[in-house]
Each structure stands twice: as structure tokens, then as C-alpha cells.
Amino acid sequence: MNFDRGEQQQQQQQPTLEQLDGWCEQALSSASPEIRSEAERRLRYYFPTFSETLAEVSESHGFSSGQARVMAVFHTIKGPSESSKLMTWFLHQSSKVFSITYVVNRLRTLVLNHLNVMDDEHKTDLRNLFAAIQDKFSELPGFLIDDLTRTLALVVMFTWFDLADSKAVIDRILEMGATSDKHEVLALQMMRSFVEEFNKELPPKYISKQRRVVVTFRDKQLKSIFEHALRAMRSAIGDGGDKRVMLSQALLVQRDCLGFDFIGLAPDEASDEAVAIQIPSTWKELIQVEGFLDPYFEGYAHCGAPLSSQFVEVLVLVASIRRSFYTEAVRISFVKRMSAGIAEILAGAVGLDDVENYHHMCRLLARFRCIHTLVEIEDSGVYRTLLVAAAGFTATGLGLWEWSANSIAPLLTFWAKVAAAHDGRDSSNTAICGDVIAATLPRVVGDHLRAMVQATARVASGESLGDSPLENTDALLENMALAASIARASYEASGAAVLAMAREMAGEYQALLNGGQAGADAVAACEAQLAWPVYAVAQCIGARQPYKAQADDDAADAEMFAVALELDHVVRQRLQRGVGGGPSEALELAFLHLHHSFRAAYIGEQGYKATAVYARLAALVGLRDSGQVLALVLDKLLFNLRTWPPASPVVLRSLQLFHDLSVGYVSVRQVAKLDAVTALLAGHSAEGFRFLGAVDAYKPRALYYAGLARILFSAPDAAPPAFAAFMRPWARLVDELVAMPDAQLAADHVRPGLVRVLRDLRGFLSAVSSKSNYTLFFDWMCAAQRMRLVHRCVEMRADATVQIAALKFMAEFVFNRTQRLNFDVASPNGILIFREASRAMWAYGSRILDERGAVRDVYKERYKGVAVCFTILARLVAGKYVAIGVMPLYGDTALERAYRVAVELLKQFPVPDVIAYPKLGKATTALLEVLLAKPNIDLVPLDDAAYEHVMRVCVEAFDHAETAVSSSACGVIDGVLTAAIESEGSDIANLVRARSADITTYLLRAMLNIVLFEDRPNDWSFSRPLFCLILLDTQFALQYTSQIVQYQPAERREDLIKALKDLLSSTEFVLTTANRDRFTQALTQYRREVAAKNLILMVPTSQTLGAPVDILAYSIEESASATAQDEAEAAMVD
């Protein structure tokens, strides 16, 4: 393996304490990158963690170099045990914050990866280290105590089943707290770090071991910690002295204990507001006791902020404990006491002038009602007291949006849960507080709506310096959806409240306009406020549930919708008269959301025709059916597209709604029958649409023309004549452009039009999904020689934007989306498409190859177009709609030119650049995977330089951020090597054999390093080429893995050799599908085994070389002999 020992000449004497302290300070605080790097290099030499990857200690300048280097370490360090000894000595000696911080982090990494190779004595020393330096804790900052304790927790976790007294560490810390108040605070702080560390999700390779330990910790030690924190809290509250620090730490420990991951949910699977805490039943003796909640409410009442907010935060978690944890009698008592405590705080506004207290109280209300239905107490007086207090609190709280914006959602959640369980028939039932609920729900909806209107008005007038609530659309829609669910529970009253407010505000707006003195600012402020009732109407309509809907509710929806339509009409009239300035973006977005909601509720794919909504709409505004509503919606969308600037969100939202109308099977056919759509199809490129005049944005154009294409082809029988009429404006434009001389075509005033038409055609074509419709477009484009425009644009050297637009159109043109290009056997269309694409690639690629000078933007002017060319060729070959193999037989040069220009472009660019630009890297590996696959590789002109460059790209792609790119790189190598093995004597086989000494060996080393040292999610992808590489050079694979084993600690070698032996002897290295699959299964088993035994390999170091070993011939006897030899060598060194 010939490791380079270039760093072995470093100074061998023991460094002084002052030197180490100085390097730690430089590594963590120096402003100079050079000084930091040098300090870290020196510290790595003395404090190695053996967790670096081979890439971090290797140099690679080519396939002939790049030998793996050993990592230089201090001469006394033979492995993790010696490194931990030096770190613990340093922690004993140093008192510098920088030094302790740096070494603790290094020690944590060492423990995480290599604690299992240390003997019990070293593990015990590490575990006892923290007790030995405990006297330093009082001098250290809190964050460093946390770091030290987390590392101790990691040691305890990993020795939980190895050392009999590891579990006793927690008990000793708890006992330490009994000696004094100062030690109690320290013990609580350490316990908090313990709980957080045990609850923290470690990397996947440690999960299995962690979960086994965590289950035992959860069932026993976590309960003791929670019990200790409870006692400390009660003691601090009962003691008249000032124990605020102890009380705070006790509450934080309780918070972390109750927030522990009791059932093993991943963080993204658990919602803070929805999941009940699955606390073990063994905790009943701690929680199901008389007066359990009293200290929390008492502490909240008597302790000021920030302690009071911590009390409520713990109460939030207590309220989230699963209902089944309590027996029925205890649950009733718990719910009553919690309800009474909350009601007392809300009624007296105790501590609610603090924003943290206020926010957590809102959360407490929501979580309490989400977990507990409160049916246990609905016939008791405390339930009425709670609802009345919550109603008053909500009425005040909804107006405090600027003070605590995030508290609105929990308040609305509480009432939404109450509303979900409320039956309108019980509104008069005072025994279960039906009267309170029926009176409160409409008031909550109205108060929320008025609060948002007032907040918007204050922002508009400058009274508030915060952002408008209309700017956060996600939060707006979430809160309005909660308000709508509340409204739907009492729709007769709540709907009437929303309707009344909408009419009142619309009347005020009309009066403002009729007054004749409406300034632009006043109109803008009024229209911003009007967005809220429109959103409210939209969400109320959108919350309709068909199986629950009643005729009266549908009629109420119709009345609200009609009022919103009348308001929209007034706004449009104002704009047409030019009164009061420009339109309001917030109001227009609200109108669009209204139309989206009405369509989803009443014009969906199910076609809700038999509803009372249309009867009422016909009486109010003359809309008798869904077709007329769709016509009105479309008229609104077209008005927005004509009036709003291209960059406005209103334009994009209008186009998205237009797109939604065109994708439904029912709605697209309804839309296609509208007169406005017929006119639009006849004049789709009208100058009135402002966004069509913009050049930069592609997405709006694509949405627009893709929608039109789906509408156009919705009636297959009428497609050919309708298509001809639709394409006529484009035909005239394209024919005029084709007829222009080159100088005129390249003029500045013409080029924007070129970009627009190419993008429009591309957007239209992206929605064409059937072969018959694609054939119509193909004939229109190619039979009339309109493809000449694309080629002339590609050849236009002065403008990269035009070239890219043309190439991207070509990429869509050749894309066999939904098998739309599967022509008949006798059709020449596939070959014609290939020729056109090859011509475009050749023209663009030749220009790039000719221009070797520097450019201002290398991606825009070179790499972007090259990436599109690679995409074109990949789609041509992968589409399988043309028999490319026969093209050389009849002298067609299209294939040869396309392949040659792709290979030459690939060879020109530096490998780091290919990977550094994500789109270029993805396009490159995707193309290579297609080109160098078994059917096509013989057609690719791959010389020695190209082969080397391709392999360099693949090696770089192994470390790409996207797993798909590294998988594609593996597919490329697999394709090349498979072809070389299967076709002995072919050009590719000779090429691979000629470079086996450097390229094949380098690839084998790189893949073995990844498989042995790293944990990748795509092991399957790496296993396929690795099998071929081992087949080509089995001897080197055995030699390299054996030498890797030599550098591992003696404690790991036996397990590692067994795992490697099972892997390398799992199958016969002969290229068959069965052998490949067996090797892949063996690699999966190897991964599983090293994860179970925590066999994390160490990079080779200058001090860890052991005795040679033959993996395939290895036996237990040899293991004992090798171990004895290693021990003898170590004794000689000592």
C-alpha cells in the first residue's frame, strides 16, 4: 500500500501545556485562516480522533498519483486509547476555556466513533474524568458545563451494558445535589444535559445501540431524574429564601423529561400541537397524586418572569399527557383542577402582561383542549367558568396581534376544537354550556376579523411599525382556516356576522369612492382592509363539507359570494375610471383565493350541480350554473393578466388558477365551451397581456400556454382544424422571422421577440401528451421549414439568451414525454428529429470549442448551453424512438457528429467545474450514463484522453451533494466496465486494460474507501461497479483491504476481517447477474454487521500499522498470533 510517511519527521517531544493552550486559543479565536489552520493541524497531531475520512488525509493529482497517505500522529499514540489518555491529561492540567472547549469536542468525537475499541479500564477512566475535574465546574461558563456533561452522557450511553456501574453515574450526580444548594443547581444542570443527550437522535449507524440504551434509561433513570426535579421544585417553592436559579433549573429538567421521545418518533414526524405525550404508566405514582398541579399554579402566581413562563411551559406539557394515562376518576379530578387553574389565571389576568406568559397560556389552552375533550366536566360549573374566562381572554387576545402574532393560532385552535364537538341543536342546552358556546363562536370569528382589519389599518396609517398581517400569506390562510371551521359550527350566526361585516366595509368603500375626495392613500388603505372579509368569505366557502352541507348553508355561501362579486365589480369600475390610484395587490390575491375556494367547493370534478347555491346566486347576481361562474372567473383572470405588471404575484396566482382550470377532466371541458376561451384561443398572443411582453420570466408563459394547449386538445375530434387556427399567429410570426436576413434577425429590437416565441412554443409543447397531437406540432414545425428559425438562433453568437432559449426548445421538442414520440415503424420522423437536434448541438458545440478566450460569465455563456446540449442528447438516446444503430450503416453523420461534439465538450471543461455547477453536473452524469450503457457504448468515439476525463468526472461526482448524481456516476463506470468485460478484444476492452494500472486501480481504491470508511445511502449503486472492479483486479482488492485492516486497532481486526471475508468470498467474481446480486446482498449484510458491532474504521496513521493478514485465509489461530505480535511490538516501542 506504500503509504507516504511525509509527516513522520514532526517534532517528537511532548508539547508543553502553554503550547497546547496557545494552539487551542488560536484554533478557536484567531482572525487569520492561516493561523487557525496551522493550529488545528498541530492539535490534530497530538489529539487525533481517528474519525477523519481518507479524502481528508490523501492527496490526488491524477490517476497515477493520489496514493493514500497515512495521517501523522504523536509517536506515543497507537490508537484511540492513547489519544484519550492525552486528552484527559490535558483536561486535568488546563483551566483555559478555549482549551477545554476544543478538547472536549475532540473527545466527544473520539468517544462517539471509537469507544468500543478501548478496554474497560480506559472506559472507566473516561467516565470518572468528569468527577475528577468537577472542582473546575464553578469556574466554567454554563455552555462548557453542558458540553462536558453531554460528553459524559455519551460515555455512559456507550458503556451502559459494558460497565456494571455506568448507570450509577446518574445516581451519584443526584446524590451530589443533596450536599448543598450550589451542588443542587449543578446536579440539575447536568441532569438536563443528560436528558437532552439521551433524547438526541444520533447518526443512523448508532441508532440501534442508542435505542436499546434509551429504552432502559427511559424506564428507570428518567423517572428518577423527573422525581428529583419535582422535589427540588417543591423545596424551592416552599423555602422562603431566594432559590430562583434552582427553581429555574428544576423546571427546565421537568420540561426536558416530559418532552422526551417516549415512543421513538423522528423529529419531523411529531407535531408540537398534535401529538400526545406517551408517558409510561410507571410514572403514575409521581403525577397521579393529590395536589400535583398546585405547585405549578402557585409558582406561576408568585414568581415573576421569566420563571412564571417556565411554570406554564411545563403545564403545557403536563396537559399534553395522553388521556389513557389517567384512570377515569383521576382524569376527572385532573381536568377539573387544570380547568380551574387556567380559568383563575385568565379571569384575573395574572401575569399576562408578560408576552412569554401570555403566549404559553395560549398554547396551554390549545393543547389542553386538543388532548382532553372535556366531556368529563361539561356538566359542571368549572366548565362554564373556563369557557367564560377563555371567551373574555380571547376577545382581548385577538386584538393583540402586534404584541404576540404567533399566539393567534393557538387561541383559534382552542375554539376550533370546541366548535368541532358542538352540535348546533345543543345551543340552548345550558346544562352543557351550549348557550355559552353558541354565543362565543360567532363573536370569536367577528373579533378575529375585526382585529386583523384594525392591525392592517394601523400599519397603513403608520401607527404600527410592524409588518402587515397580509404579508405572511401562509399564516393568514392557516388562521383564517381555523376561523372558518369555527364559523361552520354555527354557520347561521357566524356566516351572518361575516356577511354583515363584508357589507358594512363594502358600503364604506363605496361611500369613499362616491365622496369625490378619495385620495390614492385612503383608497389603498381601505382596499387592504377589504382583503380580510374577502379572505373570510373564501375560507368559509372552502370549509364546506358536502356530506354535511345543508341548503341554508349553501344559500348563505351564495349571499357571501355575491357580496364579494359586487365588491370586485366596484373595484374594477374604479380602476377603469382611473380613480384613487392603482389596484391593491392584497385585495386581488384575496379575490383569486375566493374564486379558487368556490371552484373547489362547487365546481369540482364531482360537479355539485344539485345545490341551493346556484338558485340563490341566480336571484342575487344572475349566475344560474357552474358554466356562468367559470365564465366570470375566467373574465377576472383575463382582466388581471391585462392590467397587472408581469412581476406581480397577482399575475402568477392568476395563471396558476388558470392552470388548475385546465387540468381537471370535467372543468377543462366546461372551460373549453366558454366564448371567452374561444376568443382567447383565436387571439392568444394579444398585446393586451402585459406579462407576454416580458422576456425574463419563463414560468408565467409556460403556465399560460400549457393551459391553452390542454384546452385546445380537450376535444380530440376537433383538434386538427382547431390546432391550425390556434397556430396561425405563430405561423405568421415565425415565417416572418425565418425570412429575415441574419443582420436583421440579430438586431436588438428583434431578439426579445425571438426569445418570447421560442419560450411560448416550448411552454405549449410541454403540455402536449399524445402522439397524435405531437404529430400535428411536428408537421407544423418541420414540414414548413420553421425549424430553420431554431437553427439560426442557435448560430446567433452575439446573444447567449437567444441561444439558450432555442436549445431549451429543442430539448422539449426531442423529449419523449408520455411516449408521445413513439411513431409508427415506417415513419421517418424519429430520424428527422435526431438530425435536427444533432445539427443544433453541432452548431452550438463547435462555437464553444472554437472560443477559448475568457468570458465574463462562464456559466451563462458556456456551461448553461452545454448542459442543455447534454440534456438534448440524453433525451434523444433514452427516448428510444429512433434506431440510432443503423444510422452509420447508410452514411448518416448525425449520430457521429452528436457524439463527437458531446465528447469534445466534455473534455474541454475542467472536472471541478463540471461538478461545481449543479445543473451541468447533473446533465453530464445523466448523459454519460445513457451514452456509455451497453447498447450505445460501441458507437461513442472514446479515446484514451476522453476515457480518463470521464472517469475523473465520475470520481468527482461520488462526493456530489445529490445522491442521484453519485448514483449516475456509478452507473457510468458500471456500463463501461461491463462492456469491457463482456466484449473481450473490443476497443473499450483494450482501453480499459491499457489503463488498468492507474485508472482501474484508482477507481477500485476510491470505491473501497467509500464502502469501507463511509456510510452512503446508495450502497446498491456502488456495489455494481465495485463488483466489476474486483473482477478486473481481484489481487489488488485483497491486498488493499488487507492493508487497511493492518492499520485498525487489534480489538477490531477479528470482527472486521470476518465481515470482509464474508463479503469478498460471497460469490464467484464472474460477470453474471446472479453473482452481481449476491455481491450486492453481501455488501448490504456487511453494512448491517459493521453497524451492529460499531466497526468504524480508522484512517491509517503513522503509529497504527499492525501485522500483515490474508483475509481469505484468515482463522482464529492467526488472530491470536497477530495480536501477540502486535503486543510484542508495542512493548518494544515502550
Summary, kept brief:
The protein is an all-alpha fold and 1134 residues long. The protein is 68% helix and 0% strand.
What this model shows, in words?
By secondary structure, the chain is an all-alpha fold. Helices cover 68% and strands 0% of the residues. The chain contains 51 helices and no strands. Helix 20 (434-461) runs parallel beside helix 22 (491-514) and helix 47 crosses helix 48. It is flat.
What labels describe this entry?
disordered C terminus, 1134 residues, disordered N terminus, 51 helices, 68% helix, mainly alpha
The counted number of beta strands is 0
Nearest-integer average pLDDT = 87
**Counting H and I runs of at least 4 residues, what is the number of helices?**
51
Strand content: under 5%
Low-confidence runs: 1-11, 266-273, 1130-1134
Shape: flat
Query: What is the terminal separation in angstroms?
Result: 26 Å
Please outline the major beta sheet: none
Structural class: mainly alpha
Radius of gyration: 37 Å
Helix residue percentage:
55-70%
Topology:
Elements: H1 17-29, H2 33-46, H3 54-57, H4 80-93, H5 97-114, H6 120-132, H7 142-158, H8 168-176, H9 181-199, H10 207-219, H11 221-238, H12 244-258, H13 284-287, H14 294-302, H15 307-319, H16 328-348, H17 355-371, H18 381-397, H19 408-420, H20 434-461, H21 473-489, H22 491-514, H23 520-542, H24 551-577, H25 585-602, H26 612-621, H27 626-643, H28 649-663, H29 665-672, H30 675-682, H31 699-712, H32 719-739, H33 742-745, H34 751-766, H35 771-783, H36 787-794, H37 800-813, H38 829-850, H39 858-879, H40 894-908, H41 911-916, H42 918-931, H43 944-957, H44 963-982, H45 987-994, H46 996-1013, H47 1019-1032, H48 1034-1046, H49 1050-1064, H50 1073-1092, H51 1116-1133
